[in-house]
C-alpha cells in the first residue's frame, strides 16, 4: 500500500500555506510532509520566491504551479518524480533547482529555456546523459550531477563561461572532450569515474580544486604534475604518488576528502577559499533560516490550532459542526 500523508501532516501543511497567504510570506517550507500532491492553494501565492518541497512523495507537479510567476528557488529533491516535470520549463524566473534523488532518467534539451538558472542539482537521478543545451544557460554557476550513469561530458558545458562549480563524481566518464573556449571552473570533481589518465586541465587557468580520487589512473607521468601548479588541490586518492613529488608539489593530496556539497547556499554571498575547497556529504537544503521557522511555528504549531485553525479542521475533516 502506498504511503500516504497523515491527517495531521495535511493539516499542518495547510496551516503553513494559510499563514503564508495571511502574512504575505515569500518562503514556504513543506519539507518532509509525505505529500503526494501539491495543495492547489499553494499555487495562488503570487509573491512566493522560495518553495521547499523536498522529502515528500510527489510523482508529478500540477500545471497550476506555473502560476508561481515569481518563483526563484525550488527544492524537489527526495521525491518520486520519474521524469523532469515539463511544467518547470514555464517557470523562467527560477534561479535554483534541486531535483536530486528522483528517478528522472533524462534531462530535456528544453532546459535551455530557463535562462535565469544559476544552480542545478541533479544528483542520484539515474540520468545517463547531460544535454548539450545546458551549455546555453548563460548564468549557470553550479552544476551537480553526481552518482548517475553519465559517460560523456558535452563540450558545450565545459565551455560555459559562467560555470564555476562542476561535480560529476560517481559516473562512468573516461575522458574530457576537447574544448576551445577558456573555462572559468574553480571546483571540479571527477572522482569515482573511469579515467585512466589525468585529463588535461592546464587550460582551465581558474581551476583551484580538482578531485580525481578512485579512478583507475594507470597512465601517469609524474613529471607532468608541473602542469598543475595553478591548483590549490589535486586530490588523487588511492594512488601511490612518490614521496618526492608530494614534497615538490604541495597541492597533491592522496587522502580522501571526497564528498560533495549540494546545498543551494554553496555559491551564495561572497566567495571564500574555504567555500570552494570544502565538501559536505549532503544533498539537503539548509532551511534553518526560512521564514516559516522564525518564531517556532513549525515546531509548536499545535498551540495555534484551537485559536486559529478550527475552521480549517472543520473544512478538511468534516468532524466539527
Automatic annotation (TrEMBL):
Region annotation (Disordered) ranges: 265-298
SMART domains for the chain: LRR_TYP
Record keywords: Leucine-rich repeat, Repeat
Gene3D superfamilies noted in UniProt: Ribonuclease Inhibitor (3.80.10.10)
GO cellular component, one term: cytoplasm
Acidic residues bias (residue ranges): 267-278
Origin: domain of life: Eukaryota
Protein name: Putative leucine-rich repeat-containing protein
Pfam families: LRR_8
